Amino acid sequence: MKGLTALTVAGAIMSSAASAEIRIAHVYGKTGPFEAYAAQSHNGLKLGLEYATGGTMEINGEKIVLIEKDTQLKPDIGRAQLEEAFGDDDAHIAVGPVSSGVALAMLPVAEEYERVLIVEPAVADSITGSNWNRYIFRTGRNSSQDAIANAVALGGEGVTVATLAQDYAFGRDGVAAFKEALEATGATVAHEEYVPTDTTDFTAAAERIFTKMSDVDGEKKLFIIWAGGGNPMGKINAMEPERFGIEIATGGNILAALKAYKELPGMEGATYYYYEIPQNPVNDWLVKTHFERFDSPPDFFTAGGMASGMAIVEAIKKAGGADDTDALINAMEGMTWETPKGPMTFRPEDHQAMQTMYHFRTEIQDGKDYGVPVLVREMGMDDLSIPLRNN
């Protein structure tokens, strides 16, 4: 009997030790067209957890266990992988994914399992809009934040804009938000063009845009919303849109994509992040550490991943642990925390992170093989009126 008791106690101790860990699942597109985005996001998440825990990778004495799941950029696989993370792996919190389409398939799973999913970096407004539920938080920017920041940077009376975007949630939500925001500046949208996500020949789309814009008077811009390969900006620029008085404009992007910006010095837009723009201790650490470990600067989605990792640590500290989802939600609603971009705040109504965006102008600089987005001005949380879309 004594032996049985000892075994029972030992089992309880082992069970307690096993439970004294914080399980975070990163469910993201490790393979597929957005592999570069995914790698940045994952590195950033790990760096954020490291920074926020002072290098211990523990929160309140509990070890962080990071679980990786590959969505392969497919909605059905993303949903199944999140179910596995919450069901089989008993993850307390999940982060991801890269694609908006995959994210929309994953949202109901968080509600079904009553666990928090931090969306990073998927952008579509509907994630924290019409498809949102109370278990969803987003550290990444949404389409409205992108759109309104770009509208503020590009819009004005007498400006006419055509848009080119990919034909899925990211592109259509982005254009809808941009159009709404742009019209508030006095500008008008003359034409919307949508093409498949894997398009590489933009001749037909560009010719339709040129035809629509050729007789328009005043300042004319073609605003491109794009993710992944294809280089629509460079290819359309080679078709000499200036013949029709059209200037190309776009938002920020990863460093590899900025190579196309070198062909367009002076181009303006708004960006989520460029490593030389934010001036704060978190970004200083990120830039220094990233150069030391990867021999390269941190990129667009590295900063976003780091923001999500820092949000997780802050939330668990505030909630007193990771086991009580309601306590986590209460801690996160309205929570402000530090990131490489400066402070972010989860808006209580839809859990979207309010954050700074940056108006830039492209500049050619020695030693850089891309167009550098140089800061024109910061657009803080209070400068951007981001609509609620979940009601």
Automatic annotation (TrEMBL):
Gene Ontology biological process terms from the UniProt entry: amino acid transport
Signal peptide residue numbers: 1-20
A Pfam family this chain is assigned to: Peripla_BP_6
Domain Leucine-binding protein: 21-363
Alphabetical keyword list: Amino-acid transport, Signal, Transport
UniProt keyword Signal, yes or no: yes
Name under which the protein is recorded: Leucine-, isoleucine-, valine-, threonine-, and alanine-binding protein
Organism name: Tritonibacter multivorans
